[in-house]
Amino acid sequence: MSSSAPTPAPRAWIVWSLRLTATFHLVGVLAQAALAGLFVTGDVDLLAWHRDNAGYTHSMLYAQLVAAVLLWRPGRGAWWPAAASLGLVVVETVQVALGQWRVLEGHFPLGMAIFGLSAVFTVWTWLAFRRPRNSAEVEGTA
Predict the structure, then answer these.
(1) Which H/E stretch holds residue 17?
(2) d(C-alpha 138, C-alpha 124), whole Å
(3) What is the pLDDT of residues 22-78, one digit of tens each?
(4) Is 0.90 topped by the overall pTM?
(5) Can you tell me the distance from the alpha carbon of 4 to that of 50, in angstroms, rounded to the nearest whole number?
(6) What pLDDT does residue 131 have?
(7) DSSP 24-84
(8) Residue 121 contacts by C-beta under 8 Å, 6 or more apart in sequence?
(9) Spatial contact of 18 and 64, defined as CB atoms under 8 Å apart
(10) 15 Cβ partners below 8 Å, 6+ apart?
(11) Can you give the pLDDT at residue 130?
């Protein structure tokens, strides 16, 4: 016999930890792109900033992974945000290795893919857990 009771929403602190870590990771990824662009225009000092920001960005991704696992267990949320975050960890680890090895023909497009995936994930965290408006507000009678 199955229960028709709705699954309880995850606790607010779990949702907010996922939102914030995903947002901070996305900011780090955007900074990586800006620093790389400035570096290739000739400001070689920014390569060190690019390297240091990679460490920050990767750390934020691990925090995002922890938050996504908390959303899944014990938060009773979907499992796929944890899997997606783990996938990003793998892809971003390859990205760091390609950058250290100076394999730019793989490093640049992979960076763009990471930016796109991170942006979609971050937008999802902000849209997926919005509270539904009550019916009076939706119908315009409030």
Answers:
(1) helix 12-40
(2) 22
(3) 999 999 999 999 999 998 898 889 999 999 999 999 999 999 999 999 999 999 999
(4) no
(5) 51
(6) 75
(7) HHHHHHHHHHHHHHHHHTT-TTHHHHHHHHHHHHHHHHHHHHHHHHHHHTTT---SHHHHH
(8) 22, 81, 84, 85, 88
(9) yes
(10) 71, 125, 129
(11) 84
Three-class DSSP category at 124: helix
Encoded amino acid at 24, one letter: F
> What's the pLDDT band for 137 if we cut at 50, 70, 90?
low
Residue with tokens 């960005």: 57
**Pair of tokens at residue 49:** 């900033």
Question: Over the chain, what is the mean pLDDT?
Answer: 90
Q: Which two tokens stand for residue 95?
A: 């990205």
Distance CA(2)–CA(128), nearest Å, equals: 25
Q: How many Cα atoms within 13 Å fall on the side-chain side of residue 117?
A: 18
Compute CA 5 distance to the chain's CA centroid, rounded to the nearest angstrom.
31
